[in-house]
Amino acid sequence: MTTASAMELKIVRAESLAPDIRRLLLARADGGDLPGFEAGAHLRLRVELPDGSSKLRDYSLVDLPNGRTYEIAVLREAAGDGGSAAMHALREGDRLELDASANDFALAPHAEESLLVAGGIGITPILCMARSLAARGAAMELHYAARERERMAYSDEVAALGGALYLDGGDPARGIPLGPLLAEPRPGRHLYVCGPRGLIGAVLDRAAASGWPPDRLHFESFGGAVALGRDRPIRLELRASGRTLEVPADQSILDALIDAGLDPLFDCKRGECGMCMTTVLGGTPDHRDHALTPREREQGKVICTCVSRASTPVLVLDL
User: How many domains does one find in the chain?
Assistant: First the structure.
């Protein structure tokens, strides 16, 4: 759901929260009021890369709307394309182009209670959710894991909201006790998880094994396709080229196309930009992207091949 259109933003504060995480406060460059948003929303910003090109990148909003500033936190990725490094190099007074803001990770409107799970930089949308729920006195439970204490951004804010903190060294099995936490999918309870793919996969697999209904599981990934225990191989039929591919359960459709020597369009590989969107001619997509509209997902006529899979054994694409 898009909530704001293009505008120029100015950085009014930039500071480090952890060795590899930088917080940016953004205001309208023209001094006007910022559009409101709901918890779980993100900004799509145009980021200048070291080679002189620019790409759109999504950053979750951390604080509640106040009309004056937007708050984001950026993880610097050493193996990235330079976008996060460029964001870390920004200083007060620098400007960014806001392409749009949208929300593909919203709180369920009729949830009776919310279970919030975050790992690493995934705390950004989860903290906004927790703040929103606390502001209206809604029932919630908050759990946050990170590799090391010094890399745990917003730990004080999480603790102030009654959240539990865990240090897992990068291994989900050593952090949040998922077994007891997810053992009872009480009616009206919704689960939200954001963070590394390993954590999201572990949480969703455990929740499914514990009987959580799929419509009460909500997740957002910053690291590309999430492999779930329920995933099965896909027989991919490419109608235009007349080829058939077998996609293993732990490989994305996009990577299978690339490995087969094809030249599919793609950019972010995180399900955000929609560049890899492809027409579906047969089978049922299992949508896991953040680019398609609810109507497009319901119609099942297109798929983002970088993160989404199929709920049927065979998927036919117009490639």
Answer: 3
Q: Which pTM was predicted?
A: 0.81
CB 90 within 8 A of CB 154: no
CA 157 to chain centre: 21
| Residues ≥6 apart with Cβ < 8 Å to 131 | 39, 63, 64, 161
pLDDT in tens, 103-125: 888 999 999 999 999 999 999 99
C-alpha to C-alpha distance for 49 and 27, rounded to whole angstroms:
22
- Pair 182, 206: CB distance under 8 Å: yes
CA distance 161 to 143: 11
Nearest partner of 266 among 232, 311, 225, 220, judged by Cα: 225
Which residue among 167, 196, 221 closes a domain? Answer: 221
Specify burial of residue 307 (Cβ count, 10 A radius: 0-12, 13-18, 19+): buried
Report if residue 289 sits inside a domain. Answer: yes
Question: What type of residue sits at position 103?
Answer: N
